[in-house]
Amino acid sequence: MNSSRAESAPEGAPHEGGGNGLLWVLVAAAILFALVRPRAPMDYLRLVDWQTIGALAGLLAITQGVERSGMLQAAAARLLARTHDLRNLVLLLAASAAVLSALVTNDVSLFLLVPLTRVLATQAHLPLARLVVIEALAVNAGSALTPIGNPQNLFLWHRSGESFIGFVAMMGPTVAVMLFWLFAAIWFGVPRAPITLKPSGDPAPVQPRLLALSGLLFVGFVVALDRHWLLAGLGVVFGAFLLLRPRVLLGVDWALLAIIALMFVDLRQLAELPAVATLLGGLPIGEGWRAYLAAILTSQFISNVPATIVLDPFVHDLPALAAGVSVGGFGCVLGSLANLIALRLAKLPNGLREFHRLSIPFLLVCGASALLLRLG
């Protein structure tokens, strides 16, 4: 990971929009499914996980409020004043991402850290794309530890009957392998180069009222999600911003919501194909290393949450399935929803290329290491 100014400077400035190539691919796939296997319009709506879409919509709006408050700019300036070399900064961001994702889920931790990282790159010459990719890898690894870290773990936890601590103990060895390789890659791949600050203009003024509003809405929205009051929570978030700070809503990445919705439509239709069920039913993937590899490979095509649900009837080795879908979050960008969220929040036009340049080798190394651990 080279940190030269010539290479990192172009990545340091955020770009408006992260590119919508994936959106059009998903639209084309949806049209193809509609032609090959037509269904009633309401059936398409039922394919979408509206709880996930609603949660993302509320978090996107709140994140915009925090960004516009100027708090991130102030926090980034303080962080750069205390952290003087690139390796320490990357280690700090990766460790924060891993810990937060285990406690407050992978997507929420990205909503907190990626905007901060993007602001850091406006104040210093940093390789923004690689920092965001490392954060995506870190949340995929860290969130695998606890039952509440990501949706597939929550599903498997309820299926397993394990206690919270028992589930953590089951996932501990796989997560240790993933985090070991993550921090080894940072230690040996990121130089201890000094961070060069960019010429600073007038600092953005902090708007304490907007920050307080966004903070209150964040706490309230998380509580609403926990109590399954999604519509009420969305009404409060969007109503408050619409009445008090309507410009905040102009910055919401509506294309990201469309991408996630279309992923549900396309990938669930793919998983429903009779040929897929026939193929999985005929494969010896019930347990052991075959179940583990099947979970990794399936995640690359339909993402790890749908892969968990699709494979559950055919895989009887729950630890192997849990480890496989966790490692399967690496590799292809579709492996985990968190990957897409991280790249869109970073607003990088070439983020997919950088993501796969790092994530695919990481999948191969972690996948092989975790397999050897299981076989041992």
N-to-C SSE string, H for helix and E for strand: HHHHHHHHHHHHHHHHHHHH
Q: What is the percentage of strand-forming residues? A: under 5%
| Mean pLDDT reading | 87
Largest sheet: none
Structural class: mainly alpha
The beta-strand count equals 0
Low-confidence stretches: 1-18
Q: What fraction, in percent, of the residue positions are helical?
A: over 70%
Number of helices: 20
Radius of gyration: 21 Å
- Structural shape: globular
Q: Give the N-to-C terminal Cα separation.
A: 32 Å
Task: Spell out the key features of this protein.
76% helix, mainly alpha, 376 residues, disordered N terminus
What this model shows, in words?
With 376 residues, the protein is mostly helical. Helix content is 76%, strand content 0%. The chain is built from 20 helices and no strands. Helix 8 packs antiparallel against helix 19. The longest helix has 26 residues, at 164-189. The two termini are 32 Å apart. Residues 1-18 have low confidence and may be disordered.
Short description:
This protein is mostly helical. The chain has helices at 5-12, 21-36, 41-47, 50-68, 71-82, 86-104, 106-123, 128-143, 151-160, 164-189, 208-226, 230-244, 247-250, 254-272, 274-282, 288-302, 304-311, 318-327, 337-346, 351-375. Helix content is 76%, strand content 0%.
Topology:
Layout: H1 5-12, H2 21-36, H3 41-47, H4 50-68, H5 71-82, H6 86-104, H7 106-123, H8 128-143, H9 151-160, H10 164-189, H11 208-226, H12 230-244, H13 247-250, H14 254-272, H15 274-282, H16 288-302, H17 304-311, H18 318-327, H19 337-346, H20 351-375
Helix pairs in contact: 2-14, 4-7, 4-11, 4-12, 4-14, 5-7, 6-7, 6-8, 6-10, 7-8, 7-19, 8-10, 8-19, 8-20, 9-17, 9-18, 10-18, 10-20, 11-12, 16-17, 16-18, 16-20, 17-18, 18-20
